[in-house]
Amino acid sequence: MSFLSVDGTLIVQLINFAIFFAVLNVVFLRPVAAAIRRRREYINSLVSDYDRYQAEARSLRAEAESIRGEARRDAENRVAAARAQASNEAAELSGRYARQAQDIVEAAQRKAQEELEAARAGEDEAARRVADFMLDRVIPEAAQ
Length: 144
What we know:
With 144 residues, this protein is mostly helical. It is 93% helix and 0% strand.
């Protein structure tokens, strides 16, 4: 008796194994392989979507940075223009008020000069009145 003998049992076992493998293939291996294939396709679609969304996000970030830079430059230009306009207006106001102050000073100097000239013109008359007043005070009887 040998350990392995080729007889009818071996052939039945081989046929049994072939039937088992065919049933296993139909019932389990093909559905599992199809499920794994669908899962792999789903994962691949998620990965490609993720990559596409990442690229889109990078593009949007770059666009946002460009827009921010442009807005920053525009704001700086507007601020510079407003500063220049404010400086021009300040210079204009300063010049206008300097002219007004100069006009006021000149008017005050003219008025003071006119009053001084008027005072000097009536100086002799005022000196005579003061002298008469003092004389009246010192010598009251002489005036009467």
